[in-house]
Write a structure and sequence with these properties.
Oligomer: single chain
Largest sheet: 9 strands, parallel
Number of helices: 16
Number of domains: 1
CATH superfamily: Glycosidases
Radius of gyration: 21 Å
Number of strands: 16
Structural class: alpha/beta
Shape: globular
Helix content: 40-55%
Amino acid sequence: MAAGLALLATPGAIRAAQPVPAPRRLGVWLTNSPSPLYYAPSRIDRAVAELAAAGFNTLYPNVWSRGSTFHHSRWAPIEPALAQVGGGHDPICRMSEQAHRRGLQVIPWFEYGLMEPATAAVVQQNPEWVLQKRDGSSTVELHGKPMVFLNPAHPGVRQRFLGLISEIVQRCKVDGIQLDDHFAWPVELGYDPYTRALYQRETGREPPSDHTDRAWMTWRRHQLTGLLRELRRVLKSNGRGSVYVSLSPGPFRFAYNHWLQDWELWALGSLIDELVVQNYAYSLQGFARDLQQPALVKASGWGIPVEIGILSGFGGRTTAMPTLAEKVRLASQRGHGVIYFYWEGLWGLHAGPEGAQARRDGFSQLHRSLPPLNPPPLNPER
């Protein structure tokens, strides 16, 4: 059992907890890696109760990672360890039920986006769906493993991607969905036969050999934008009205030049409802400097919530509570909510030398000290 789950508050203490004023958004990413959270209903129930007591108002559970899902899907295999649990256990639906009972919002996070392990069955069965480099190769080393990216312009890829998202929205009554920096078209890719033929048909030209050619980048960016636009249309037509779409990219220049994510255009074009910009700078000086990035400063005037992703702890790297508190205050002073990466870095496996109880107390005190701004309404009409 994770350290954070061994030191859980008693039900009585949780019921006695007072409402905590919160900035626009106080959220946390939750995932199975590494964490036992997803694999038992009791762990989920108690974790949600702890988070509510500590003043969190939004959960971002990972639902799509490493080529598998965390619920039974017609579009992709279920995560192997979850399949072994059996009994119809569905961690995302369970988390949604428990969170809604306590007034928390749940926005499932599709971590891998258009990325798949190179060995995934969908890759082996549909090689024509895979983007390629100019030399004909397709693998990209990420997370220490060979990965590939599926082509957002291919009809088969689009159908599967839209299906993966639609089914979790319909099944678990979630409040929205989140894409991140893996909803992308890596700039060096796009020389596969399908993309070449499509580009030639639409422009009358062969793709340029320089993958940073601006016109070539713009054309591919439009394909990615088209998939996001189609996602909005599908979500609006699923019978539940407009569904909240959150995006968690990296800094704008990197996101655009490396991943062809034009999140400024997407925000101004009403294709996303929330922007969560990752800022994992370890030092306070670096964190404050990154809050001043021009695109991020401009984003505050775009009429959508702008939050900051902050590293609480992961992989042996834990941010000390005083440093975390100052980062949260810096973000809050600029009108931003915060999303912590990740659950086990709060007071769990990566609680660090401060220990789980001290961290839990620290987060509760920090959240009570912040300006009482409410989280944004979901499904906004903009």
